[in-house]
Amino acid sequence: MDTDEQLFNQAVAFQRAGQKAEAHAILTDLNRKNPNNGYVWGTLGIVESSLGRIAEALEAMKNAYALDPATEIWKQELGMLLVVVGDLDGAESLTRGPSLSSAIIKAKVLEAKGKYSEAVDILEAVISDPPPGIYDGRALPVESQLSVAKMLYAQCCRRLGEPLKGIYMLSRPNVVPSTPPHMLGETLLQNCGLLFERGHCF
């Protein structure tokens, strides 16, 4: 019989392969067995969001952040979901501290308010000089966060009528020397998002 860790890894593999229903089934079962695991809640939230179940995703991500506030991806995903449902004040409350996720959420809130130039300024600064990543085996690698920041930057540039600036940013490599080699890797969803945004800019 597979251990919970093996089942979780299988769910992540399903999620990365786009097999959302299979990932959702495993994570829901794991969550029933241990409702105090922030990482299971957070991963379930990401899957729920990819399935378009925003209310369920928001609830899952709130639980993930409450149980595991040190993992930056949960704060970032929670902030993005709060913007989606129109809770800009709630999203802004997560922007304290000099982290990359805080900057991304702040820029997302500004984008939602139509303040594209201010969002661009914040993202330009943080992309040029990203803070060091937290590598405990669970935190989101800075490279992945930079992809999100660059995509948001390009969206704001496009809305400002400056798509060439967005194309230039999307063409820049994500280079953060502090990242251990074993944590580098491609994420299909983020790569697809970057490619779609590049296409919009063109």
Overview of the molecule:
It is a single chain. The longest helix has 18 residues, at 142-159. 69% of the residues lie in helices and 0% in strands. It contains eleven helices and no strands. It is mostly helical and 202 residues long. The N and C termini lie far apart (51 Å).
N/C terminus separation: 51 Å
How would you characterize the largest beta sheet?
A: none
The secondary-structure class comes to mainly alpha
SS summary, helix count: 11
Strand content: under 5%
Percent of residues in helices comes to: 55-70%
Let me know the average pLDDT.
84
Order of SSEs, N→C?
A: HHHHHHHHHHH
Q: Which regions contain 5 or more consecutive residues with pLDDT less than 50?
A: 134-140, 183-190
Overall strand count: 0
Specify the overall morphology. Answer: globular
CA radius of gyration is 17 Å
Features:
mainly alpha
Helices and strands, with pairings:
Blueprint: H1 4-16, H2 20-33, H3 38-50, H4 54-67, H5 72-84, H6 88-92, H7 100-112, H8 116-128, H9 142-159, H10 163-171, H11 188-201
Helix pairs in contact: 1-2, 2-3, 3-4, 4-5, 5-7, 7-8, 7-9, 8-9, 9-10, 9-11, 10-11
